Amino acid sequence: MAYVRTVKTASGARAVQIVHSSHKGSRDIEHISSAHDDVELELLRTVARQRLVAGQGELDLGLDAPPEAGGPLPITASRMGHLWDALSLAYEVLGFDAAADGDEVFRQLVLARIIEPTSKLDSLRVLEETGIAPVSYRTLKRRLHAYAGEAWRERLAALCAHHVGLGPATLLLYDVATLYFETDAGDGFRESGFSKERRLEPQITVGLLTDATGFPLMVNAFEGNTAETTTMLPTITAFLAAHRLTDVVIVADAGMISEKNMKDIEAAGLSFILGMKIPEIPYIVAEWRKAHPDTEIADGQVFTQPWPAGPTDKRKDQVRYYQYKHDRARRTLKGIDEQVRKAEQAVAGKTAIKRNRFVKLTDATKTVNRDLDLEAKARALAGIKGYVTNIEDPTPEQVIGAYHQPFQIEKSFRMAKSDLAARPIFHRTRDSIEAHLTIVFAALAVSRWIEDTTGWSIKKFVKTIRRYRTLHIQAGDYVITAADPLPDNIQHVLEAIKARAATH
């Protein structure tokens, strides 16, 4: 026979004991645990009942019975509490909750895209698995058109600009990406054009403006057949007008710059640090080689060439820098050797003729272009990278260092296209595509904030934190809250998020 009793411990706490009595009158006492409140006491009583009746038959009287003998306590709710709360905190610190007027649909779509990017319909499943009660799909569809509006995105962009603290010395990075659609017919917005992914399907062109750390400031969508170089100035001028800025420093790669682009940037009164295309050997480099015929250029050597404005030039004075790097030269020379080898194979009929500057076609005759000037010039330019700026009193370290920041915007694009699955595969109309990009833009901002705060990639953060859930367990008439214990490293990461949010 066994019975349950509650006792007080030496410290005054209550404890539950199961007392087992044998036929000889001896008693074995099993201590379960101490309880400090009614909820814990009820839990202990429930556990005790399960142990007392384990293996015994029960008469069903139709009454509310305790949990099945020996069975587990039922879990009534399970939530990725640590993950959702951390992402929500970042969302609120950036001001998105206020900008969206507390729109819960927008919050759910943004955070669900970070947790698991998928279609809008399937995001409801992601929310349920997270432990968040999702809105209805009808409500979701009804709200999407609002997120496509310029006013909505402008409010988010204003908050992002406030977060990075814009000023005259702010570096703005600009780059574009193309997002294709699995359709064979254009519609005026989704159109075939130059694809960075070398695809033939209709696409859109997306321009992204960030600060020097890669934090997103503005995103614009253009028709898929829009030339990349024509997207930069409209995006930048619109951003400056929205934030009443007269000058910033634009940083962009050589592929984004045309001669007209540079003149337009100058005409807008903007400062810039740009990569340069070098079609010919720079004069200053050629002169140095003449003066040092038996000397190799030192690794990291920079040649400085002032480019003052003439009396009729409508521009600021410029400075051009040419930097030589051994590793860059090695890769370039290896590429030249490979192009020559492929040209020889193509001429011999062993491979198909592809775009190759070392293949010379004369009528129907193909030969290897052994033009010594062409190959000599290509090899002479190996390792040299050009930069041009119109900022006042520049230094090579300042200009070249700033130019190398574009890897940050490339990282943001990679995050948007991979971690956040930015390609709007499930959208067809322009409004729905614009709404999708607004959601991705907000998700990218939250993700970059998390990464900057924790030092973890957003992929690692989500994958790690989502495993630790908060549970609600039914114990008799009470609901117990339980949680997976957190390792120290995760505890430190979550504390870092809370600490930064507290200082905002």
Task: Please tell me about this protein's structure.
By secondary structure, the chain is α+β, with helices and mostly antiparallel strands. 42% of the residues lie in helices and 21% in strands. The protein contains 17 helices and 16 strands. It has an eight-stranded mixed β-sheet with strand order 7-6-5-8-9-14-11-10, with helices on both faces. Strand 15 and strand 16 (478-483) form a beta hairpin. Helix 11 (326-347) runs antiparallel to helix 12. The chain is elongated. Mean pLDDT is 80; it is low at 30-36.
Question: Which terms summarize this structure?
Answer:
504 residues, three-stranded antiparallel beta sheet, 16 strands, elongated
Secondary structure: elements and pairs:
Elements lengths: L1 E7 L5 E8 L5 E9 L2 H15 L22 E5 L1 H13 L2 H4 L4 H12 L4 H11 L6 H11 L2 H15 L6 E10 L22 E8 L5 E8 L8 H12 L5 E4 L6 H9 L3 E6 L6 H9 L10 E6 L10 E7 L1 H22 L11 E4 L2 E4 L3 H10 L2 E6 L6 H8 L2 H14 L10 H25 L3 H8 L4 E6 L2 E6 L4 H15 L2
Parallel strand pairs: 5-8, 8-9
Antiparallel strand pairs: 1-2, 2-3, 4-15, 5-6, 6-7, 9-14, 10-11, 11-14, 12-13, 15-16
Helix pairs in contact: 2-15, 2-17, 4-5, 4-15, 6-15, 11-12
Shape: elongated
Helix percentage: 40-55%
Strand pairing plus helix content: what structural class? Answer: alpha+beta
Beta-strand segment tally: 16
Task: Report the end-to-end length measured between terminal Cα atoms.
Answer: 62 Å
* Low-pLDDT residue spans: 30-36
Radius of gyration: 33 Å
Beta-strand content bin: 15-25%
Number of helices: 17
Largest sheet: 8 strands, mixed
Arithmetic mean of pLDDT: 80
Widest sheet: strand ordering: 7-6-5-8-9-14-11-10
